[in-house]
Amino acid sequence: MSYDKNKLRIGYKGRFVIHDHVAQSHHWDLRLEFPVLSLKDSLTNYYKKRVWDSTTEPEPEFLDKPGTVLRSWAIPKHKLPTSKHLLATETEDHSIDYIDFKGVIPEGYGAGTVSIYDKGSFEVVDLDYDRKYVIKFNGSKINFIPSSNIDGSFFILLFMKFKKKFLIKFQGELGNVLVELALVLPVLILLLAGIVQFGFILNAKVAVNSASYEAVRIATLAENPEEAALAAVLNYASASLPGWSFDERLKARLNIPDKNPGTLISVEVIYSIPIFFSNIFPFSAIGSNNSLSFMEVKGFSAMQIEEKE
């Protein structure tokens, strides 16, 4: 929906209404007056969902001109009253005249009884356009709790991808803590994911280095260095990281020119480690398996064949 960014800023003031809607499911409707660039564009869904010959709801001014509409969220009533955050679902924008509406909606969309629980004014005290709105309400009741004054701040976080909205109430010191947590938590999750991924990579690097050294050491003493080196890689890798086996993810490259004493031989161990967070971290992926990407971790060791006694 295209709201008027030039007007919808910190300090913007508008009207709100909270409807008590007894329909197929009993719920509340929170409606905020938002400025729009085109009434026609904003109210198309509202207009199409109703049969205007039978409904008692106010018919909108369906013109292609700027104005204000009621941006609306449905909130399950059985979860109220509460001081916890609430999951709200955004519905279509409503005509601004709906702010005074109460009555019975006949059969069809939204059929049921609508009454006004509270109405008043609000002010936007902070926002990140269409991602976050911190709103100060001024009405006669607070956050759907009867016999209180509405004089609290509400945090509305908008997740457009899922078309779900979180309506969160913050008050006092607890509110400040929750706001800070909401801002910091994504960074903490990202940091934790990075630590976990780095731990996997570091563990694999230590393992392949040790496996290559152990393989080349045993190969210099064995009668059959190729067979001894491969067995040593597999044994060490399996003990270090359970589940390793010689397949497309674990490889060993041997360089054994001959078996004569003094010959320099080398062993390189390569392991393709899954990158669980490849969409987040800029690792260089070498392949994929379903939804996982991989990166190669290598260990290399070289040593001379010793003379057999």
How would the blueprint of this fold be written?
Layout: E1 13-22, E2 26-36, H1 39-42, H2 44-48, E3 67-76, E4 86-90, E5 94-95, E6 103-105, E7 112-128, E8 132-138, E9 153-159, E10 164-170, H3 172-221, H4 225-240, E11 250-255, E12 264-275, E13 287-289, E14 292-304
Antiparallel strand pairs: 1-2, 1-7, 2-3, 3-4, 3-5, 4-10, 6-7, 7-8, 8-9, 9-10, 11-12, 12-14, 13-14
What does this structure look like?
The structure is a single chain. The chain has 309 residues and is of the alpha+beta class. Helix content is 24%, strand content 37%. It is built from four helices and 14 strands. The chain has helices spanning 39-42, 44-48, 172-221, 225-240; strands at residues 13-22, 26-36, 67-76, 86-90, 94-95, 103-105, 112-128, 132-138, 153-159, 164-170, 250-255, 264-275, 287-289, 292-304. The strands form two sheets. The chain has an eight-stranded antiparallel β-barrel. A hairpin with an 8-residue loop joins strand 11 and strand 12 (264-275). Helix 3 packs antiparallel against helix 4 (225-240).
